[in-house]
Amino acid sequence: MDAIELDGVEKRYGAVRALNGVSVTFDPGTIHAVIGPNGSGKTTLFRILLGLTRPSSGTVAMPDATLGCGFQQPQFYPELTVRENLRTFGSLVGADPEWIERLAGRCGIARIGDRMAGDLSDGLAKKLDFALAFLEEPDVVVLDEPFADVDDESKPRLLAFLESYVTDGRLLLVTTHQLGLFREALDAMTVIHRGEVVFDERLADVEGLDERDLTDVYVDLL
Amino acid sequence: MKLPTLLRKEFDWGRHRLGTVAVLLIVLPAAFGVGTLFFQHTFPENTPIAVVGVDGATEDDVDIVVGAITASEFSDPVVYDSSERAFAHLERERVYAVIEVPGRLGSTGTTSTVEINVDGRITPYRVPSRALVAVLANVDEQFSLPGEVTAERRVIGTTADLPTYLLPVFLMIFLMLFAFTYVPYNVAKERRAIDRLRMASSVDAMLAAKFVSFVPVVVVATLVVYAVGTLLGHSLQPLSVPLVGVYLLTFLYLSAISLAVVLLTDFSTTGRVLNVIILFVLLALSNLVYPAGFFSGWGREVSRSMPTHYSMIIARSHMLKGGVEPWAFADWWGWLGGFTLATFVVLKLATEWYKRGE
């Protein structure tokens, strides 16, 4: 799989400029964090990558790859059970039923298969949305705040799953406000502030990063 | 005292939803106000009826009858040059009575009989049409004719009582209600998963699935109403493909309109309000129950521009009237088919607009 390349991407909503000339490359085989304050343009960037929003200008070069996504606001049918949601979206993307079973187990939702999705707590809803992102075993996974509302016990387990999932041919893009949790897993980080890229590096290339907390780096940039 | 704070909150809410508030407080009440103009009479002054000369009737003979009807202000006479065409229009509810005027009307030493033909299944006009007998029975005195003129009323086909007459109407109203309330409500629920759905499939596929799943609902609803009508002893024509077909087609074009509104308003509450407004407009202006022109002249013209008006006539004909050929309304079927196609083009454009609008 080739890299995803954005060149001079702009997105305007009327007078508001959500993204302003964003040029960035996302390489396969990496876990790449896109971070920034609330309203900085991260979600807009992800929506453009997913094809849900068209950029006002600029180009997006997407490889021939399958895409999966975990949304900031979980996206599923609240009036179907957890199992029915997995089956419905799994069927739409041609997912392997055995993989769906394993995925449900890895995401901690196997035991709540018969519960109505609309009755789930925020944390469980997030886990279901997380699992739905991986149904197709996609080459590129985009996760928007995947651990928001998720209990502390589950976070390391889900993080381990992410690390095991990303191989050379796969790419994980994640936005999070829990940088400390992701610190060891991240390969690259892009910081967006007011719609512009203010930092875009492979973490291995940043000198002295080991001594500094990643959150401090991010805050200093802003 | 918490009231001022809560009132302030209500004010802020309204300020953020000026569009919805404007529709609810200005557009909707104004539309209801204007809508009263549609109802100008409780007497069928503008209901079209055909006047046709027979048995060597001259233009003068016909003019006498037209003059008498015009003076009475009961219905709106339209002169036809052939009985066949007049009766064909009676069958299609283009007119609600056919007055046959004999030759030498009111001539010296003669007794002329003007025949008033009404359709037995059009209950809301059949009973009031008795007034025409009174109007035309006095033509000789009114126009000082030397001969005698009598009037006879002839009811064509079996007579339908009001419950029988209302059966196809209520089914149509049910489908309109379904198309403009439940269908938008059902599709609006997709919003909770619309982005995931767009990635795994498409909005078009979702809408197609909705239409396919609703078709059996419409068919079953039609069958249930028909079965209830039969159990109640209503005199109904055998269930036919055109009967089910016209309700299905009507449901399809109404649903296409309501779903276009849903998409153009981004699944919002405003869209649901708009759909209810459209429902009220169609119910009020389509003359589903009363004959066209029963309430006003312009109401007649408006109803005749409504597709639901034609759907209703076709449905009523196939449910209540015997001997209606499947191709009897071929021209209207073509028109409704074209309209349905147009609504689906609009729905497609609304879908594209929704996808671009994000």
Structure, explained:
The complex is a heterodimer of chains A (222) and B (358). With 222 residues, chain A is of the alpha/beta class. Chain A has two domains: 1-65 and 168-222, 3-Layer(aba) Sandwich (Rossmann fold); 66-138, no CATH class. Chain A contains seven helices and nine strands. In chain A, the strands form two sheets. In chain A, strands 5-6-7-3-8-9 form a six-stranded mixed sheet. Chain A has a three-stranded antiparallel sheet with strand order 2-1-4, covered by helices on one side. The longest helix of chain A is centred in the middle third of the chain and has 12 residues, at 82-93. Chain A is globular, with a radius of gyration of 17 Å. In chain A, 39% of the residues are buried. The mean pLDDT of chain A is 91. Chain B is of the alpha/beta class and 358 residues long. Chain B has two domains: 48-156, D-Maltodextrin-Binding Protein, domain 2 (3-Layer(aba) Sandwich), CATH 3.40.190; 162-357, no CATH class. Chain B is 63% helix and 9% strand. Chain B has 15 helices and five strands. A five-stranded mixed sheet of chain B has the order 2-1-3-4-5, with helices on both faces. In chain B, strand 1 (48-53), helix 3 and strand 2 (76-80) form a beta-alpha-beta unit. Chain B is elongated. The A-B interface holds A 47, 50-54, 67-69, 71, 75-79, 89, 92-93, 132 and B 189, 192-201, 356, 358.
